[in-house]
Amino acid sequence: MRHGKKVNHLGRTSSHRKAMLSNMAASLILHKRINTTLAKAKALRGYVEPLINRSKDDSTHSRRMVFSYLQNKEAVTTLFREVSVKVASRPGGYTRILKTGNRLGDNAEMCMMELVDFNENMLAAKEAPKARTTRRSRGSKEKAGVVKESKPAAKAPKAPQAADEAKAADTPAEESTDSKE
């Protein structure tokens, strides 16, 4: 019986699963975003978030412990230099899983997993929130007898602009001869 055993084996042996999660975690740290199945992403979240949390303390022991999981020097360096700086104030939840639909071949549920503080599009959207407006029913002004007046379009004289452009075209040629002398 499997009482209390909540590890998703992902149809792999223990050594294969550990190697796969290690490779996926290194790819996530290096590239900041990966595409994978939902089941693998959920398993990876439980694998990589403790490593990111450990990277906040930049000590030799922490680096060696993270390297024992990742087995990739570049990933460890990136984790401690770039990622840990951005997540220093965050108490947890370093990854985000965005579902992208089903895979054509086997209909597996696919997703994109990314590091939260490295998505520039979502950070830009969060920094510039929309101005809040009050909700009004459509006919409330018309019922009250107030009719919205339309503003007349500003008309600019077209003929003087054309004359000014013609003068401007002649002027630089005359000025250029004066500046040479």
Offer a quick outline of the entry.
The protein is built from seven helices and three strands.
Your description of this structure?
- With 181 residues, this protein is mainly alpha-helical.
- It has a domain at 14-127: Alpha-Beta Complex (50s Ribosomal Protein L17, Chain: A), CATH 3.90.1030.10.
- The chain is 52% helix and 11% strand.
- It is built from 7 helices and 3 strands.
- Strands 1-3-2 form a 3-stranded antiparallel sheet.
- Strand 2 and strand 3 form a beta hairpin.
- Helix 1 crosses helix 4 (73-86) and helix 3 packs across helix 4 (73-86).
- The protein is extended and about 75 Å long.
- The model has no long low-confidence stretch (mean pLDDT 84).
Set down the secondary structure blueprint.
Blueprint lengths: L13 H18 L1 E5 H17 L5 H11 L2 H14 L8 E8 L6 E7 L4 H8 L12 H4 L14 H23 L1
Helix pairs in contact: 1-2, 1-4, 3-4
